[in-house]
TrEMBL record, chains A, B:
<keyword id="KW-0238">DNA-binding</keyword>
<dbReference type="Pfam" id="PF00356">
    <property type="entry name" value="LacI"/>
</dbReference>
<dbReference type="GO" id="GO:0003700">
    <property type="term" value="F:DNA-binding transcription factor activity"/>
</dbReference>
<dbReference type="Pfam" id="PF13377">
    <property type="entry name" value="Peripla_BP_3"/>
</dbReference>
<dbReference type="InterPro" id="IPR000843">
    <property type="entry name" value="HTH_LacI"/>
</dbReference>
<dbReference type="InterPro" id="IPR028082">
    <property type="entry name" value="Peripla_BP_I"/>
</dbReference>
<protein>
    <submittedName>
        <fullName>Transcriptional regulator, LacI family</fullName>
    </submittedName>
</protein>
<dbReference type="InterPro" id="IPR046335">
    <property type="entry name" value="LacI/GalR-like_sensor"/>
</dbReference>
<keyword id="KW-0805">Transcription regulation</keyword>
<feature type="domain" description="HTH lacI-type">
    <location>
        <begin position="2"/>
        <end position="56"/>
    </location>
</feature>
<dbReference type="GO" id="GO:0000976">
    <property type="term" value="F:transcription cis-regulatory region binding"/>
</dbReference>
<keyword id="KW-0804">Transcription</keyword>
<dbReference type="InterPro" id="IPR010982">
    <property type="entry name" value="Lambda_DNA-bd_dom_sf"/>
</dbReference>
Amino acid sequence: MVTLKDISREIGLSVTQVSRALGGHADVNPDTRDRVRATADRLGYRPNAIARGLKTGRSGIIAMVVAGTRTPESNAHLFEIVMGLSAEISARGQTFVLHVAEPGADTMRLHAELYRSGSIDGFVLIGPASDDPRIARLKKLGAPFIVHGRDPAQSHAFVDIDNMAVGQVMADHLLRLGHRRIGVLNGVESEFFAVQRRRGVLAAHAAHGVAADPALMLSMPMIAPNGRRATLALLDAPQPPTAIIAGNTPLALGVYQAAAARGIRVPHDLSVLAHDDGLDMCPPDSFTPALGGTIAPLTTAWVALADHLADIIAAKDGPSHSRILDLTFRKGCSARAISVDTRGHAVP
Amino acid sequence: MVTLKDISREIGLSVTQVSRALGGHADVNPDTRDRVRATADRLGYRPNAIARGLKTGRSGIIAMVVAGTRTPESNAHLFEIVMGLSAEISARGQTFVLHVAEPGADTMRLHAELYRSGSIDGFVLIGPASDDPRIARLKKLGAPFIVHGRDPAQSHAFVDIDNMAVGQVMADHLLRLGHRRIGVLNGVESEFFAVQRRRGVLAAHAAHGVAADPALMLSMPMIAPNGRRATLALLDAPQPPTAIIAGNTPLALGVYQAAAARGIRVPHDLSVLAHDDGLDMCPPDSFTPALGGTIAPLTTAWVALADHLADIIAAKDGPSHSRILDLTFRKGCSARAISVDTRGHAVP
DNA sequence: CTGAAAGCGCTTACAG
DNA sequence: CTGAAAGCGCTTACAG
């Protein structure tokens, strides 16, 4: 390995001066600087990250701990998160550590041990639970961290989208089109984002002076078969909805499948909107008719996570280290205006 | 952060002795040892990985560099490899770094820079090409590394399966059952494993004194639609095969689909075998009839990779740092014995 | 503009 | 069985 000492010896300057020249400090003769840099390049010098880390107290390492599972189940979302985050962190010259814990391991403890070993500058947490113990632990440790998503029960830095707006925007769009019975296929409501979306839907109803029917609001893991099953149940009920809001595009796929199975046309007989995070396997424009709804590409989250975490590590203070990502709405061709009678039933 | 100095001060021993006590060296008074350890636990001491790394020249970090893609395509295989490897490396107290390169980045150079920065003990390479430049570069650097798979053009440590045996075993099984026209849906033959499998199939034919028909041996990316398309082509040809060997289970799924589309029964009219790596989305027993073929669970590869790489880093010498993983055969219910006439056509 | 010195936290010969 | 000292490679006050 080439060290500062090697360069120092090679051109007869002190290690101090070589370090400063390479560091780009102002108080170095420009000629010296260029000479040092040229020599460093020629020798293939790279600063020793470990030595630098020991001196500066920063390793440049960001870690993410994920719980391991014994059964290899392909979690496409987790994969994209890992790849996206790694790419973003690698691109800024930092190092991304993925620590897959053994099944049943105590991830709180793991975070603490990793941090105490002094080699981790900060953590990224994903999928926070309510009252997530990992968050409490990291706060107690004083470790820099940022959460993708939010734990409403604790105050912490996060990057998230406005999930209440997700529900509100889609419901509002449908209510404006005249729909009065709107089905909602929501995520599992033990998760905060799903709770917020439901609140958004209810708020939109309230704003329009429309009573929301709780029987139309269902909660489930967001995969296509569940969307299909739930939609069939809604359609077969005595008072079916005229529109459905799906929590993600796979759920919407299930909605389309169920409609097809019942000979119900989208959007003529049933309007459909869905939230799209840009990562799910079914992109909205692969739907026929093209699926409308809210859009918040998860890929923008990596940049925000890396940025804010860097600020937190550098202990920069600002108004907040959290960030709510933008939300856009895409009309698509999957929702249409209808007329309804006083009971909310469609009038041809 | 709690350091040796803190413990030293706390119990009035030298830092030297504290270090030795915690390191479990023999020449420390057992009482002292216990006292030091108790204090370390009480204070929540964790050795500083960076300081230790600087001293020992080992960081405990294993890195994997993967090429980034701009389009987030879910690569379930890569995901399992990353998760499996990370879990295995994390479990042994080492650190797994995933470096996702920017699209178009020079991964050779990246490996070199990471290694020269002194913070990486070794690398895991996956998906080696023929004459892979990354391998040449790492060899030139003298960096410890191990390859999952093989580059036959260079000598290096690797963990792989015997792909020639994969082809040989399945072809031999079918030949013994009386098949004389065996279709092969192989992977892309620019990859070494696919070349080896073809060789194995040919070797089995030679051993049985049967001429292999090159027209029956097809090469393609191993996904179900390709398997379906290739099988339809084989079945619709003037002299269709009586058996098909598929490179993986998705290809076999395509074979089953094509057979169903043509009203051809498995195994009555068509025998099918496939190689199963235990990770593909279609497990053999989810097939009807249950799919037979060779099995080599990829999950055993992580342990081997981590083991051998650790040996290489420790510069232990042994007969070889490479490993060929076990292969088993599972009969399933997808292949049956047939009688054939002299031209290789099935006789009822 | 340049250099000698200290120190980050650890490990490990070396001397007692 | 124990301790003082050196050193891993770097950065950074401090003094010239």
